[in-house]
Predict the 3D structure of the following.
Amino acid sequence: MSLIAVVKEECETCRLIVPVLAQLQASSSLEIRSQDNPSFPESLQVTDDTELAYSWQKRIETVPTLIRLDDDGNEVDRTFGWDKTAWERLTGEFLEFDIPAFRPGCGSMTQDPGMPEKLAARFDLEKLQARQLTIASEEDELEACFDRGWSDGLPVIPPTPERVMRMLTGTHRDPAEVVGVVPPDLIPCTVEKIAINAVLAGCKPEYMPVVIAAVEAALQDEFCMHGLLATTYYSGPLVIVNGPISRAIGMNSRGNALGQGNRANATIGRALQLVIRNVGGGKPGGVDRSVFGNPGKYTYCFAEDETNSCWESLSVEKGFNEDDSTVTLFAADGLQGIVDQKSREPESLCRSFAAGLRVAGHPKMVMASDAILVVSPEHERVFRLAEWSKQQVKDRVMELLMIPGEELVRGADGIAEGLPEQFRDKTVPKFREGGFNIVRAGGSAGMFSAIIAGWGASGSIGSTPVTRRIVLTK
Amino acid sequence: MTTFMDPTSERDPGSRQPLPRPTDLSGKTVGLLDISKPRGDVFIDRLEDLLVQKGLKTRRYKKPTFTRVAPTELKQQIADECDAVIESLAD
């Protein structure tokens, strides 16, 4: 049996127990490892751990920590702080000194602010697979990222090993785990690559579970990320977050939910786009052939406002529990407003919604794109007071969007665009079944809602929205 | 010296790459940039002869002084007007 004590001079408890350490070093094979002063305690034999390699490897969180090893050098027990009873049990010795029987320890230097990621970068980097690139000291770090093509056009956070290690603390998942294959280059994407791009995007580690789920959802076959990237259409991936995590990480679901100013909203959507760009190789002018794109292709992510809503949330509609956190990926265009400040009855407001939705893509375009209607609290109130469920609103709007073929055929209304003549006597729904969804978000004042129309290729011929549970624990 | 973790698929070399060079100059316009060193014009005149013989279009530019980098406006003008540029160093 042997003993190892990890101490630092700065810790009052460590200084208090110097007589104990002296006795143990005299009677047992006690090795003392000091984190700060390699000659503390004076006159005892001390191993220098000022590099903190041993403390990090042994995951020391408190000093003093006393570890007992068996004859093969394997740890069999440990205690931390000064607890006379525990130390006597661990050492098998009577430790009678004129000091209190109990004193809590201090934080290990491995736990100092910023230190865990520094030590992880120093001692654990070989656990990662990504290539390490050396940037010359003359290079500006931000410009170096631009020069290597890693940016969407805005500055990115340089992905230093420390930052990547810190990002990986946000997930329990193995950095080497492949979460999907990223188009267009069909590159297997690891958790580690997601973490590096999350650093570029400016994410906090606590956003990682959401980012990983968003990437996983985007890489499901039915989401059709390759086609969505390659299309000449306006669309890009939109991430809607539901459940407790959206509140835990401080996402914005209220005023400016679709605007700027919230770090989680801004960086989660951006991280997904940067994964497509950097891992998949999907870039404007390359496989991305969009005529216009849309501002959401920088980042497009918000949370549904589930508090005090009279409606069930999008994720509950999709079969998840209220306690589940989910992401829903939607192939989304930009945003179109619906301003209706007069409607106080559901029927009137549904008609406003339908009129706005009718023009998505083109007033004659039917069964092509999906749409998400983002209903503000003041518009939701109209339905709340009338006790209309979300499903009732969806059903009524879909009914109102059953369009007579004579309005849709080529030449109708003097517009060459339209459906072939054989549709003249038919009635055609604007959206495919299941292609119209509603979420609640937005600021408390303003009788506005917002339409987010989708890619002109929806469902089995293009993209189907994908909802995926965010995995928070093993 | 700083280390970055590569965010890409690592298909490209890790070092910073120059812009792709044209594989064929036919039909292209080649800029000839004299950096204002003595006898730079002699060198550029000869290059221009050779390029014109090959049927290429050329355009001449000159830096105000070899001691400083080219003015931004000049770089923008060359990028706008040419497909490739040859910068001559001479003495």
The longest strand of chain A covers residues 326-339.
